[in-house]
Amino acid sequence: MFRSQYEDVPAVEEPIHDAVLAGAAERGDAPALIDGVDGTTLTYAQLDVFHRRLAAGFAEAGVSKGDVLALHSPNTIAFPTAFYAAARAGATVTTVHPLATPEEFAKQLRDCAASWIVTVSPLLDSARQAAELAGGVREIFVCDQAPGHRSLMELLESTAPEPQIDIDPVEDIAALPYSSGTTGIPKGVMLTHRSIATNLAQLAPTIPMGPGDRILAVLPFFHIYGLTALMNAPLRQGATVVVLPRFDLETFLAAIQKHHITALFVAPPIVLALAKHPAVAKYDLSSLRYIISSAAPLDAALAAACSQRLGLPPIGQSYGMTELSPGTHVVPLDAENPPLGTVGKLIAGTEMRIVSLDDPAEDLEVGEAGEIAIRGPQVMKGYLGQPDATAAMIDSDGWLHTGDVGYVDADGWLFVIDRVKELIKYKGFQVAPAELEALLLTHPGIADAAVIGVYNDDKNEIPRAYVVRQPSATDLSEGEVMMYVAERVAPYKRVREVTFIDGIPRAASGKILRRRLRELK
């Protein structure tokens, strides 16, 4: 068993809005959130007042403890306000990918029995369709303005008293992001107020930040990485978050220059752009002090090229997963010469085992590769409504089996080298092969199909479909298959390559032998 070198931190048994914003009022006019495009700024004092007034507005509208509110929005300065207000009103927030199709959105709404939606006017049609398909949604609010829908600004005008909700941080669910876990279709990950708040305290010693630090939030808040690293953590410690709604390289670079960004938390595709794109040379990025990459594996050579080009310390990585609130490992900012390719060391209060792939009861030693298992206060409560899936992920001793394969060196650095699980990470977003396979099989010209992740020339993992044509569909083309999928899923889930084969390799149990597919040229 491997233990953290950091002193344990006590569990933070506070509601997430209090754990993050307890010091907001005292920070007064210090900027909390800045729109990276138009410069609109919310101070800490405003964030404190606005989220409390919005909580009152939500409560007056009927939001109550135990309700689920779906937050369906790109990054905006309104997103954190809505998140903390809903939590203060006693609701659980389920975050929704802005590009989800109405059908995908409706599945999530039905699964978690959401009663409320907060969205933005450009996404309103999708939200309306999803609400109609799902049923049970009482009202759709908008962050901006839209005819026929109440805006958050209107709710802020409520004169109702601030709700005083009795929240149990140990049991009550603060956030309900959806994850595919080690395999299968997306499932609701129940993250309690305590698990999220304690994870923030666990991470703080390794990546300290505070007033004067400026963090650029381009990765999405709806993803647990963005929710933690770009929203909860910096706001808890008094830093300023500069918000961008999406990644556009020129806008991103201009924001770093204009707002004197000091730190970036990114995914590998952004590291690639910083390392190689000629546009980088046109901007003054000298305010940057460090870059952390997570959400997908980062190639060591690419990391070195990026840090060398920008004149920065080595790019640090971190490791975790939605089911772990999400952090377990990070390369500390004060680490001297961390080895290339490591995802970091265990954070405070976290235990790890490396278990044999052949016998999960067998613990492996330093340098031996096996499945990574984690135990700590950041482990999720479970999957919503899926006790069997929860039991398959978390054993009776509380160890969460990640499905990732890695090893630990003599100095305690973790290296992740493979995945037991079948999940594809496309630019940090989770793509479940089973979901795409089920969709492919609805095509009348497809007899069988399997999907695996492969790496393209840009070192992004992409979904590749192996397809068996029906005898009557010998002219079915790669383009037709890709278009069929693209019309039915969010853009990040699209199949990027198609290979036609005579048969899908399967075990006697019917399970797809993905390793055999990877051996095909």
Give structural notes:
This protein is α/β, with parallel strands linked by helices and 521 residues long. It folds into two domains: 2-403, ANL, N-terminal domain (Rossmann fold, 3-Layer(aba) Sandwich); 424-519, ANL, C-terminal domain (GMP Synthetase, Chain A, domain 3). It is built from 16 helices and 27 strands. The strands form six sheets. It has a nine-stranded mixed sheet, sandwiched between helices. β23 and β24 (429-431) form a beta hairpin. α3 crosses α4 and α5 (102-112) packs across α6. It is globular, with a radius of gyration of 23 Å. It starts with a strand and ends with a helix. The model has no long low-confidence stretch (mean pLDDT 95).
Top keywords for this entry?
single chain; 521 residues; Rossmann fold; GMP Synthetase, Chain A, domain 3; 2 domains; five-stranded antiparallel β-sheet; 27 strands
Summarize the structure.
The chain has 521 residues and is α/β, with parallel strands linked by helices.
Structure annotation, total helices: 16
Strand order of the largest sheet: 3-2-12-11-13-14-15-16-17
Describe the oligomeric state of these chains in a short phrase: single chain
Average of pLDDT: 95
CATH topology of the largest domain: Rossmann fold
* Sheet/helix structural class: alpha/beta
Total beta strand runs: 27
CATH architecture label name of the largest domain = 3-Layer(aba) Sandwich
Kindly provide the radius of gyration, computed on alpha-carbon positions and rounded to a whole number of angstroms: 23 Å
Name the shape in a single word: globular
Share in β-strands: 15-25%
Low-confidence stretches: none
- First-residue to last-residue Cα separation: 39 Å
CATH class of the largest domain: Alpha Beta
